[in-house]
Each structure stands twice: as C-alpha cells, then as structure tokens.
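Possible regression after last week's pipeline update?

I re-ran a chain I had predicted before the update to compare outputs. Posting the input and the new output here so someone can diff against the archived version. Not blocking, just want to make sure nothing changed silently.
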Amino acid sequence: MNDNYIIGIDEVGRGCLAGPIVAVAVLLKSTPEENELLTEVKDSKKLSAKKREEIFVNLQDKFIWAQAEIDNQEIDKIGIQLANCLVVNQALENLLKKINNFSGRVVADHVGGFNNYVDNTLPTGRQEKIEFFTKGETKFLSIALASILAKVYRDRLMTRQEDVYPEYNFAKHKGYGSVEHIKAILKHGTSSLHRQSFLKNIFSPRYKAGK
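New output (post-update):
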C-alpha cells in the first residue's frame, strides 16, 4: 500500500452525561480527486449540524472508514480516560481489518494517557503507531473528516433515543450537559443511557441548592 496513505482518528462524546463515546478512523489516499472532495472538510466543531450532516451524506461512501463505540455502562466501569484510549484503538483495529498491508501514517487528535495504555495493554506486535496532535482536526484533513464522521454517527445514535426517552430531549443536546438536560435529570432521574460516574455532582445537596 502507498506510503502516502494516511489514517486519521478522532473521538466524540468524551464529556457527555449520557450515551457512548465514539471514535472513527478513516483512510485518505492523498490523491487530487480526494482533495477535491474534501474542500469543505474542517474541524466538526466549526461546522453547523446541518453542514456536518451534508458532508457525512456526501462522503460516507467515498472513503474507507470504521467506527467504534464504548457505552455508558462500560465507561462507568473503567473510567473515561481508559475508555477514550480503548475506543480510539478499536476504531483503528476495525479499519485495519478493511485494509490490506497498510504502510502509511496514523494520526489522531490528542488522547491523554494513551502511551501508558499502549505500553501496558496492547500487543507489542502491531506495527501501526499512532501519532497524537493537539487540535489535530486543524492540522490534518484525515482527522477533520474523522471528527465529522464520528460526530454525525454519534448524533444519529442519540437522536434515535428520543422515542425511547422523550423526557430528556436527547435529539437536541445529544447527551451533553446542557442546562435543559441537567434540569431533566433532576426532574426525572437517570435513564439507562446516563453515565452514573458523571452525575455525582449533579445530585449533591450543594449542587441542588445552587440551582
């Protein structure tokens, strides 16, 4: 496989109060044709939800990519930092299963503690080494595209929960800690999607008194 090929990885949902953390790994071949397709791609946080959805629909079938997710229950068991490391690694593993003899570069948005996790947990035989960059979405198109694919994929997951848990309005905030979401938790309690380890402060007497 061409050494100019590059895999970009990004995750979304790390700070949410509900739902999974999701990572996407995507392969770019750095061809003129691909670059033409990527003219509107940038960090997902700098795009409107409508624009992210449009890019997702237009590009999802034009690139080789894979996602991974870790649900809220597993996050509560192992902690968000390890979950973040695991989901990034699993997205890469899932993508490599679709690619033969990858020999390019693997880049990702910064994940704290990943090197310690790799040293202690991952098999040493794997050749693909992930390079991490702070604000990687602004430095690599592959990471920017991964951020869009991950964001839309997760947003769709959370929107589908609206029918199951209408009282939380997941379609609007996607599980993030908005004022509306926190008020719904205080009123209705938690659902099976909520990360209990993220909610301790919300249910503390001091927090309630402040609200």
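Follow-up from reviewer: compared with the archived run. The chain has two domains: 6-157, 166-206. Marking as no regression found.
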